[in-house]
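User: Second chain of the day. Same drill as before.
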Amino acid sequence: MDLNQLLHQHQVAVIRAAAAPVQNLGSRFDLVSHYERRIARLRNQLGAAQYPSWLKMGATLSD
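Assistant: Same format as last time:
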């Protein structure tokens, strides 16, 4: 799976987890975390940063 597909599948998993009934929150397999680990591993292999260098944490549009 390429990075865009992983990012898409992660977003779908986040949306489904948010919509899941409370009794399903204790699932033995956390799909969201699974995709987060796969994305981090692929970014590392590709030498890609998690965030672009121009994006600073806490920066605003007026900065």
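Residues 3-46 form one domain.

User: Great, on to the next one.
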